Structures are given as C-alpha cells and as structure tokens.
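User: My instructor asked us to take a sequence, write out its structure as tokens, and then describe one feature of it. I'm not sure where to start. Here is the sequence I was given:
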Amino acid sequence: MHKPEAPGTGARLLAGGDDTIIALATPEGRGALALIRLSGARAMAVARALGVSASTPRTAHRARLRHPATGLVLDEAIVTTFVAPHSFTGEDVVEISTHGGRVVPTQVVAACVHAGARLALPGEFTRRAVMNGKLDIVQAEAVADLIDARTVAMQQQALAQLDGGLSRRLLALRDDVIHLEALIAYDIDFPEEDDGPIAPARIHSAAGTLLHALDALLATAPRATMLRDGVLVVIAGPPNAGKSSLFNALLGNTRALVTPIAGTTRDAIDALLDRSPVPIRLVDTAGLRDTADPIEQLGIEVSARFLADAQIVFACGASPEAIALSYTATARHTSATIVPVFTKADMLGVGALRDERWCYASAETGEGLAALLSRVDQIVATLPAAPTDSVVITRERHQRGLRTARDHVASFLDGWSSGALPTLVAASHLHDAREALSELVGSISIDDVLDRVFADFCIGK
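Assistant: Let's start with the prediction itself. The structure tokens for your sequence are:
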C-alpha cells in the first residue's frame, strides 16, 4: 500500500521568506466551479485547518470545508495535494475546487488567510516556479502568452516556448559564445606560439557564424507580431464597391453596416479572423473619394493610415472601371501587395470573360471567398515576416538581450580581427555577450528582471 508523503516534505522555500500564498485561480463571478491554489511550506497545514485530511498526493478527494475559528461549513469541495518538489511551484501545493460564484470562493480564501496563508501577488505562483527551478524565465513568459493568446497561432507558439524551444535556442547560442571564449583562451594562454594553437581563421569563422545565428533569431520578432495580431489585410475602394459586404462575408457575421447609400462607413472597422497558418486582421475602410463632408473626410484619412500599414490590400470594385479606380486610389497610399477584387461575381453572366489577375467573389453566394483567402495565404508565404521557424522571440526583453549579445560579439570580432584591441580586452565582450544570454533565460538571478517579467501577470498564476 502506498504510504502518503508527510506534508511539507522536501518543500523548497523562496529566498527571502517562507510565506504560504493563496489565490483564486479562476475568474471571479458566477460559474459552476472555482479553483483556489495554496503554495508554500504551510500549505498542507492551512488546508488541515479547514478540515482537509491527509491523502495520497495527486489524488482528488472530497472534503467538507469549515472555517477554522467558527466551525461554519463553507462548502463541499474537491481537494488535490501536490508534495514538493513535484508541483508547479516546486513547493507543497493544495488545489481546492469549490462551487463557483462570489461568496463561496471568497469565504474559503478568507478562511485560509485566517489559518496563516497570505494573498498571492500577481504572477507569484509562476515566479516561485522559476525560483525553484521548475521553469526558466522564458518559459514563465510563455505562460502569460498562453493566457493572453487571441489566436490559435499564438497559442501554438506559446506552447512551443513553454516546452522550452526558445530556451534551448538561447542556451545553444550561449554555448557557442562559451566555445568562442575557449578558443580565445588559447590565444591568451599561449601567446608565444605562432598564431597560437588555434588558427585565427577558425576564430573568425566561429564569431561570424554566431553573429549570423543571433541576427536570424532577432529577425523573428516581426513573426511573433504577425502570429499574435494577424497579417493586416485592408479592404479598400470607392463607396458602394461592396467592401462592407465582403468584410461581413469573410467574417461570417454582420459587423459592418451595409446600405446602398454612398459613404456609409465613416471609420475603419477591424476584426481578427483566426485561421491557419496565420490569422488575418481584416479592416473595412471608408470609401476613397473626394468629399466635402468633414466627418467622411476624417474616415478617409483613417483609411489612408491603415493602407500605409497594410501588408495586403483588397482593391474592390463592382465593375472593371471601379476596380481600375480602386487600384489607382489605393496604390497612392500603400506599398503593400494589392489584390483587385470583383465583388459582384454573382452578377456576371454565364461564360463572361474574367481577368486572371483579379479575384472574383460574391457576398451573396459565397463564391470565391475561399479562393480569396487562399490568395492571402500565398502572399503571406512571401512576406519577410512569414513564419518559417517554430522558434521566435515574442517580447521586447528578448530583443534587447539578443541585441546586446549581438553587439558585444560584433565588437569582439571588430576589435580582435583588426588588432585594435588586445585579445584580453576583446574577450571581455564575449563575457558580456554570455551574460546577456544568461540573463534572458534566468541562469543568473536578478530581482529587477524578475519584477519586469511578472509585472503584468494575473493573480493566481
């Protein structure tokens, strides 16, 4: 028979205190269930104070919870314990699943605080996981990205980062720096040797390869933006070109007001179309035309700004003449790929000639919508930021650290290869590059870095 581990066994405490923390891990408000999490050296003792008996770790069991001071029954709950270090935080953890709503979870949390726990700070559970070696900082950031993901693409990217993909890439780059430091060490330790035991060309090649790898990872930053926010596709053209109808048809619901009155869309309307391999941020804009209406003119100015930022533009029209005008008008505002779209494909007669350069679509029948989206996929695959690698950097902190490492490697290479710097001085740049990469994954513990990482976390995670 399995003997339960003693509560508290093996708990690893955070530096600076042994507080046991508690938080509601599910959103507040009406709901079927609520999950409350305890973590720390006294997590088991706090749970026992509410009437939770010892049980086999990782096995859910039923418990009648009572307030430790009054004995008032709070709820019939399901409790699961996790004994350190085999938990998310690396500490003893108790997860209490209560009925939902506002009163029950609040009462249970308050009772746990009365029994000796304190309310957790935002991100404190994940921070403890980092401090106790269960996650590195990059993986902790992935937890936040997973919670905040608005698209399947960003969800998958966050899962890949949580699995350690980016961490492994950063550690591999750090190993490359260490390897380069080892090569240089020979040049420092054996200065009397002709050219040293390591050929200069080998050091130069290793540094050049490392620079290329750092540049390649830095170049993935726009890809993360595309995965998170979608490729920007702007629907443009003159009034009554069928733009709003196309917008609604692509989304599958009515977001834009569609009327036969010219100038109905006075502002840009955008929506995220979550699809694979890259989501689409679809924007319906005001009709491009000369107008004396100051309100409509403001909408046209907004359209121009979206066109300037667009990656793909649908130049819409309901006739060949309208498409030509739409193409000319949009080309003045954008350098994006322009796709001419005939929006009234259902109005064409049988056997009517079709321009191979255009896409034909109908909001009424759905004709051509799938082909139009396929055309977007083809264009996306040619964009510089198109995702080609499962490893991307997702945060400004990643960019800063990589740029710092890259600049130090470049300074080493310039100073060492030109002889402008003594080898020992040039090598100090490699040390700084290694430290920058170590800080990214948290191999060196710096409190202000942790504070920045967890500042925006939600409470209970």
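For the description part of your assignment, you could build on this observation: The CA atoms of residues 416 and 426 lie 6 Å apart. Try explaining in your own words what that tells you about the chain.
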